[in-house]
Write a structure and sequence with these properties.
By secondary structure, the protein is of the alpha/beta class. It has a single domain, classed as Maf protein (Alpha-Beta Complex), CATH 3.90.950. Helix content is 32%, strand content 25%. The chain is built from six helices and seven strands. Strands 1, 2, 3, 4, 5, 6 and 7 form a seven-stranded mixed sheet that branches. Strand 5 and strand 6 form a beta hairpin. The model has no long low-confidence stretch (mean pLDDT 95).
Length: 198
């Protein structure tokens, strides 16, 4: 891995997070983290999503000790009635998730962690997302697009799933996967450059 012209390592394979970093002019390389993402029993959604972000960043940092660059870890999850809705495993789980979210407001928690040398800092973003009532025939049609698979909450606000969203209160970029206001705040604390020419 070349560290020239790179300011940070992104511990994620998410193309959405990469695009958001490009949006704010960050020079980065990608090194996905391979960790167990199982939620602990009685672990709150807030603690869970922050633990995931921290473990992703720390895992990658441990593997690239020869490169003196900070590492950014991030995790996003959908929460309804204090229950975490992770990426659906199959069609049945995706449709069940969308049924639960239909006509209601849910929370999207996005945590970010930056690790540099022996220092780790975390930030947590919370956004309220309200869904309109989803019509019965829409579940099958949306599943057939392929978008729900691999998405927390079985939808993508930046994609086709935007048609379900009546409104949001909070960070749109946090729902996409990387809350840019908090990310910029952390970058400032670690002297990580943004707003580079693209």
């Amino acid at each position: 891995m070349q560290s020239d012209n790179i300011d940070i390592i992104l511990a994620s394979s998410s193309p959405r997070r990469a695009e958001l970093l490009r949006q704010i002019g960050t020079r980065f390389s990608i090194q996905p983290a391979d960790i167990d993402e199982t939620q602990f029993p009685d672990e709150s959604p807030e603690i869970y999503v922050q633990r995931m972000a921290r473990e992703k960043a720390e895992t990658v940092a441990q593997h690239i000790q020869e490169i003196n660059l900070p590492v950014l870890g991030a995790d996003t999850t959908v929460v309804l009635d204090n229950r975490v809705f992770s990426k659906p495993a199959d069609k049945a789980e995706a449709i069940a998730t969308l049924r639960a979210l239909s006509g209601r407001s849910h929370r999207v928690l996005s945590a970010i962690a930056v690790v540099a040398e022996d220092r780790t800092e975390l930030r947590l973003s919370e956004t309220s997302v309200h869904f309109r009532e989803i019509q019965e025939q829409e579940y099958e049609r949306y599943w057939s697009t392929g978008e729900p698979l691999g998405k927390a909450g079985a939808y993508a606000i930046q994609g086709l799933g935007a048609v379900f969203v009546d409104g949001i209160t909070g960070s749109y970029s946090g729902v996409v996967g990387l809350p840019l206001s908090q990310t910029f705040e952390l970058f400032e604390r670690f002297n990580i450059a943004c707003w580079n020419a693209r």
